[in-house]
Amino acid sequence: YTAFDPVAVQPERSAEQIQCPVFMAHGLADKKMNPAYSQRNFDAIPHANKALFFLEKANHQNVLSTGGQAYLDRVDRFLTTHLEDENK
Predict the structure, then answer these.
(1) How far is CA 64 from CA 8, 39, 79, in A?
(2) Taken in order 59, 62, 7, 18, is the CA torsion positive or negative?
(3) pLDDT, mean over the chain
(4) How far apart are CA 74 and CA 9, in angstroms?
(5) pLDDT single digits (tens) 32-75
(6) CA dist., res. 53 & res. 74, Å (int)
């Protein structure tokens, strides 16, 4: 495992260029990547077609298993909404 420095790659700057819908999820128990990074990247996306879902008990790699059906339902709603918008 190589340490990853999110400041060095400037993801916020990249996020400013995103034009497609974005769904982000982050575990609040993540010890590898501070959830504040997700919030900052989310805030940098310049449009409203985005969603950020924080999962209280999830860590860096167990968002799906921790979030369970509630997580899947959010992903489904997001995709359904944005795929319908694309097909109009």
Answers:
(1) 28, 19, 16
(2) negative
(3) 91
(4) 29
(5) 999 999 999 999 999 999 999 999 999 999 999 999 999 999 99
(6) 8
Q: Which amino acid is at 38?
A: S
Distance from C-alpha of 51 to C-alpha of 71, rounded to nearest angstrom? 12
Tell me if 29 sits within 8 A of 57, measured CB to CB: yes
Q: Where are the domains of the chain?
A: 9-86
Give residues with Cβ within 8 angstroms of 50, minimum separation 6: 21, 22, 23, 24, 42
Q: What is the pTM of this model?
A: 0.83
The answer to whether residues 53 and 80 touch, using CB atoms and an 8 Å cutoff, is no
CA 32/CA 4 separation, integer angstroms:
9
